[in-house]
Amino acid sequence: MTTRGGSTQAPETPERRARWFRALTSVLVREQHQSQRSRRGARRGGAAQAAPAKGASLSAAPFLPLDAALEQGGHAPFVALRVDGRIGDFLIDTAATQSSLNAEFFPIGATRLVRHFSLPSFPGGVFSVADYVGLRGPSGSKLGILGTDFLSLLSMRLAYDGPNLQVGVTPASCNGRLLREAGFIAIDQKGFFSADQSLLGPGRPNVPILRMGFGGELRFWAQIDSGYDDRLYQPSIDVNAPLFEALKAAGAKMTKVDDVTLTTCVGRESRAIWRMERGGLDVFAEAGPGGAPVAAFAAPYLSVKQPNGCGGIAGLDEPAAQLGASVLRSFGEVVFDPKNTCVWIPGHR
């Protein structure tokens, strides 16, 4: 419980923070639209008209292009956005449920209300402020992290072409028929990632996944973590201890190739890196047994995340994994469609 000015308030929870964020965004969007209609009406003799759509898309809704880049030698996607008069790199982090700003540029506090934000359809929003010591973006200092509190309310297209990246967003849902005709396959996100948080499983963060498996029996889910820049070993898949043991029990052959030291929320820790040598890991469109794989990773690198107090997949009793950003890049193009509760990947892989 917290007390402010003598009044007692309920403790902040992710659900209350999400409701507050949606309510605030609705007010800011309404204010922006009213202002835009007033300006257009004044220019056109009082007749307010909708602005023409911009951008191109594989769906019925046009994707608005953002200024996007990859850090040299890396896989994590960045976009340039303006916040309250300052422009800089934002990491697109699909595994972060709370967007944040860099304490190098904004005073640290519980939350910061931003009323001028250049992300399409969001004139403002609520951010936490975090210390980004040692973290950089393609143009230098990283201004912020864009998480699923914003991304779950947008459709987003990531398209990779060698060292180049294209990012487009739209507040509209995608057209599944057009995407299927273009050769994309929908990965069901029910229980994991959606614009409608009532569709999430109990206690689940709003984070997109791939549905994966090994052999004929073992199935598990893997969070898509676009902020996890797996440069050293590609593709890198972090697995929790239950999944690592389940893979061994299912006959997966793995060879230890390295020990690495990582910095986590509790300090530095050592992890072993293993490479799968037989069978690889498959991707499935739907949950449950049966069905043919729609993609596969023949020889991924695995890193076991042990429980350490940081939360996430490491503390779960069920088998689970976390995918590095190189996995997204390996697909060439990925479309996040939270309003239809799915993620689209190319069917040719």
Description:
There is one protein chain. The chain is 16% helix and 38% strand. With 349 residues, it is α+β, with helices and mostly antiparallel strands. The strands form 4 sheets. Strands 18-19-22-17-23-16-15-20-21 form a 9-stranded mixed β-sheet. Strands 4, 5, 6, 7, 8, 9, 10 and 11 form an 8-stranded mixed β-sheet that branches. Strands 3-13-12-24-25-14 form a 6-stranded antiparallel β-sheet. The longest helix is centred in the first third of the chain and has 30 residues. The N terminus is likely disordered.
Write the layout of secondary structure elements.
Elements: E1 2-4, E2 7-9, H1 14-43, E3 64-66, E4 68-70, E5 77-83, E6 86-92, E7 100-102, E8 112-114, E9 125-130, E10 136-137, E11 140-146, H2 148-151, E12 155-161, E13 164-170, H3 176-181, E14 184-188, E15 209-214, E16 218-224, E17 236-240, H4 241-249, E18 253-264, E19 267-278, E20 281-284, E21 295-297, E22 301-305, E23 320-323, H5 325-331, E24 333-337, E25 342-346
Parallel strand pairs: 6-11, 7-9, 16-23, 17-22
Antiparallel strand pairs: 1-2, 3-13, 4-5, 5-6, 7-11, 8-9, 10-11, 12-13, 12-24, 14-25, 15-16, 15-20, 17-23, 18-19, 19-22, 20-21, 24-25
